[in-house]
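(Protein data)
===
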Amino acid sequence: MNPFVGWGLAVIGIAMGYALWGWRGVGLAGSVIVFWLLMQFSRAMRVMRTAGGRPIGQVASAVMLQAKMRTGMRLMDIILLTNSLGEKRAERPETWRWTDASGASVTVELVGGRCTRWDFQRPVDEAPAAAGDGTRAQRPDTGPSA
């Protein structure tokens, strides 16, 4: 949520509380605001506690992470998906990377705390360049080259 919208709603809630119930309404609106802030803080601490127990920049499957990514996600949402803190790659633009056991990785760029783009990279195939008889090695799933 946009911070201006959130704080605007808080001000409207306090004003409505005062208009309808006087100082009791202001107290009720203040209590609701504090409760909401505590819930957000608790969520952030739970995500960080979970991510803190895992290796930095590691994810179970980079392919699945790439499939779940979307523009506009916050870093907290991405950490919740990966259950791991990312490996910071650059400051401008803010760039983070997660890698799985196979070597595939997802690099995420954030601008203003939101995901603007991501890049999925597979590891380089390390198949032998030549067969023993001097001909090029071919993958079994591909036909002869033209």
